[in-house]
Amino acid sequence: MDNKDSEAEIHPLKTEDVKAQEIHENSVERRILSKQSSRLSRWRTAAFFISLFLCLIIVFAFSFIIPCPERPVSERTWFRHYNDAVAYQFLAIEDVNEDKVQDVLFAFKANNGSSSFNTSCLDEGLPSPCAFVAAVSGTNGRALWERPAAEDLEWMECGIQQLGVAGAQGCLLVGRPTALTALDLRTGEVQWRQSSDFGANYTVLTPVSVIPDVDGDGIQDLIIFAATGNKIKTFIHSGRDGKQLGSTGSLTVDGRAQYIRLDLGSSSYFLFYTENSLYAYSLKDLYSAATGMEAKLPSLGQDPEWEKSIDHTTHHLSLPSFGDFRYLARIPGKTHENILVVNSEMATLINAQNLQTLWTLNVSRALRESLLGYYKPDVLGIVLESEIGPNRKKVMIVESGSGVVQWDLKLNSGAESPSPATLSTADHRSAFLIWGDYQEPGNETRSRAPFQKLYLFHPSYTNVLLELRNTTDQIIAFSAALFERPRHACYVLLRGPRAGTEPGTVSLMKRKLKEDVSESKVIWLSQVAVDSEQYVRDRLYRMRFQSRV
Predict the structure, then answer these.
(1) 66, 72, 224, 534 - which has most CB atoms within 10 Å?
(2) β-bridge pairing 278-282 and 327-332
(3) pLDDT at 486
(4) How many angstroms from the chain centroid is the CA of residue 480?
(5) pLDDT digits 0-9 by tens, 465-485
(6) Is 400 within the bounds of a domain?
(7) 68 has pLDDT over 70
(8) Within this chain, do residues 424 and 503 fall inside the same structural domain, yes or no?
(9) Cα three-residue angle 159-163-166, rounded to 5 degrees
């Protein structure tokens, strides 16, 4: 009994000892795990800070030790001068050196190029003087490349995609004696040169049109029209090597012709117009006539509605009676292009799909082809210039959808006054650059000096003109463009003797528009002056520009 009782008393103590021992062991294990976890946490923290330190070292190395390439600062104004030269009426604005700043391409005729390259006509086997093509940096006016290109230059166009090589932009030249030359836009190197027989006393109808790849070499091709008398010769050339594809086609017209091209979905039409007639040919017809084969490309189709309106014997296009044709222009619409027809008395907008009249506007003696801009936000307008008297013109901004005149201005203007230009602004409107000489009402006396003044108009001030510049120099070509986004809007002037006259000094100038705005003269078109002149200058100085795709 005593043994049993003692054993009964002992067993509970044993159980408690075991439990206590297990608790102690678990506590020791936890402390060990805690110490291991603490060490691991410290290692992780150390690794994090070491990694952070290394990243900071790399960042500082790239920021300070390894310098970033410096981007040239665009100069506000730069000049280039070419002595003993004449210039052609040609300017192109393209990014030649791919620095995201637009550059300037132009052409001049001289015995030698500039001192930057020391090139001469003999370098290309040409007699002196000859036509040079030059590319100049829009940043600072530095010459990027120069190339003796032809004995004489009739026409030139730059920015043509896939000329010579897929993906490469180029310049196409038509020289005299007849030769087609393709230059690489980036380097000025000759991609190809081909002679062509355009005939005697020909005139190339411009611009040259790029057409789909019809010879299957992966490069788009070219169609060229050369007019001689009442005949228009059609040439299709390979965009890869310039070789003529097929034979020469021939069209008959009743006088000196010009043309525009319309793209209607899967079909393209060429509208040739003389003073009294309008002719229409599909690209499919022109291709078949030149190659003797039927076009198999889906993009060489024909529009059923247009085919009904074309006389297939004479190729006259049936339109409402216009009397005469001064020029035709393509005007973008909401869903398709429309046709602006301008004669000696009126301007008419035609629906390009059904050839119905959309609106007409009285416009007497149009001086030149129209220009597009935005008077109202995102509402396309048409700039028209018409002669209203000897050395007098009227500038109108017309809403393209309705034909309503939104704004107009009368100016003195010489026969060789440059064409206007537009620049898109960030408020979805346009700044309009106009050449002429404004005379205040009641003060019609004209200066004896042939002043040409450049004015800026923006629709935010409908009664204000800014006079930016006046000059008596002969202006050969004028252009305006956004050289850098979003503020570096500039204009370019090419001045001096033009081709066909005695050589002299040719001057090329780029001028930042805002520099002239800050120094401009404010002209009030009405007696109501809402703001001070300086406030107007400051507000227009602050306007920003944008590119429209």
Answers:
(1) 224
(2) unpaired
(3) 65
(4) 10
(5) 999 998 888 899 999 999 987
(6) yes
(7) no
(8) yes
(9) 110
